[in-house]
Structure formats: C-alpha cells, structure tokens
TrEMBL record:
Coiled coil: none annotated. It comes from the Eukaryota. Its main location: mitochondrion. Belongs to the cytochrome c oxidase subunit 5C family. It comes from Trifolium subterraneum. Keywords: Membrane, Mitochondrion, Mitochondrion inner membrane, Transmembrane, Transmembrane helix. This is Cytochrome c oxidase subunit 5C. GO terms for cellular component: mitochondrial inner membrane. The chain crosses the membrane at residues 20-36. InterPro entries: COX5C. It is found in: Mitochondrion inner membrane. This protein is one of the nuclear-coded polypeptide chains of cytochrome c oxidase, the terminal oxidase in mitochondrial electron transport.
Length: 64
C-alpha cells in the first residue's frame, strides 16, 4: 500500500508571451504620456512666440 496522495501546487515559470505583452502595453502607455507632455510644451512655446511677435508681451521689463 502506498501512502495518501497529496495534491501539490505545480509552479509554472514566467509566461514569456504575457510578459512581452505587458511590457509593450506599459511602454506604449508611458510613451503616449511623454508625447502628450511634449506636445503641450510645444504648444506653450509656440503661443509665447506668437504673442511676442504680435507685441502683446515683452521680455524686457518696463522702467517706471
């Protein structure tokens, strides 16, 4: 007679495909956020130079 059988959890290794998909997803999300930040900074700079060119703002302090 053999002893009672005990169900052991089988440990699996990391799923390579799952890790690649997670990595791509995180990379695209981070890249999108960075790109949106970059576009926002470009818009601010373009607005500043447009206002400067129109003469609505100045970089020289007015003397009193």
């Amino acid at each position: 007679m053999s002893g009672p059988r005990i169900a052991h959890a089988t440990l699996k290794g990391p799923s390579v495909v799952k890790e690649i998909i997670i990595g791509i997803t995180l990379g695209l999300a981070a890249g999108s956020l960075w790109k949106m930040h970059h576009w926002n900074e470009q818009r601010k700079t373009r607005t500043f130079y447009d206002l400067l060119e129109k003469g609505e703002i100045s970089v020289i302090a007015e003397e009193e």
